[in-house]
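User: structure tokens for glycogenin glucosyltransferase, please.
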Amino acid sequence: MFFAVTDQAFVTLATDDVYCQGALVLGQSLRNHRTSRKLTVLITPEVSSGIRSVLSSVFDEVIEVDVLDSADSVHLALMQRPELGVTFTKLRCWTLTHYSKCVFMDADTLVLCNVDELFDWEEFSAAPDSGWPDCFNSGVFVFRPSLDTYNLLLQFAAEHGSFDGGDQGLLNSFFSNWARADIGKHLPFLYNLSSSSLYTYVPAFNHFGRDAKVVHFLGATKPWNYKYNLQTKRVMQDDTASGSFHQLPFLGLWWNIYSASILPLLEKLQKMEDSDEVACSVSELSIQSKPAKPIPEDERRKWEEGRMDYMGKDAFEHIKKKLDAFLH
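Assistant: Done. Predicted tokens:
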């Protein structure tokens, strides 16, 4: 029997229309896996009215908040990610005091199964970061909304800033005892699996990766930066969006949800309102209805650069067929 829990929520943040595409897919993935918790998305004033109405069809709450920006260009430059300053806005999630407990998830995460068990964990629970495991990754964490905690975070940010210029550096400094105080607050890595990491421990990925519960599309290249073919239902790699072999199945899952559940909502709104804002938002994603014909020169260059389509035309069975045909 399904019981709704109304005083707990999954929370995400979208600071513009493009990141709303990720939030919509995340929200729909939680719906698809029958979460019993509320879904809340924090948005900034930059999000258009058309996209807000689409968000309302997926999320229980769409809450506008003012932008918080670290404006820390020096530390942000170290990561070559100047856009991450606005992630300080994530701190606003501690103001959702009508909930007793929440799980925050970045808009570039994707749920692969029901993860309601995350609410059994306490504040501040998070998974280790793949780049520096003694730090947690702030893309998924369990917290208890509190205005006292919120004000302490703001005070800490004003006095100490963030060692990376974004929310992750700030939160790791604020919850500085996470690495050593209580292993019971260390979420398994499978709750925040980096899709784009070039795993050096491939046997572990092959053994444990199939049990991943949440995938996180870390880095500057997001799922919506890839091209997707609606006819073949395949993600296409090109020169503008590179990724590791490991994340191709996850990208396919993201785009399958987008094309099946989110794109129809955007198209319906566009037809009803003839909204230029929505039309722009839809067109920003690279969707092709017909397969593009490969150019021989481009295909040769990709092979020479080591960028083969292992999941598609360059799969071993296809290469073997060509060799067999040539030999016989």
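User: Anything notable?

Assistant: Residues 248-273 form the longest helix (26 residues).
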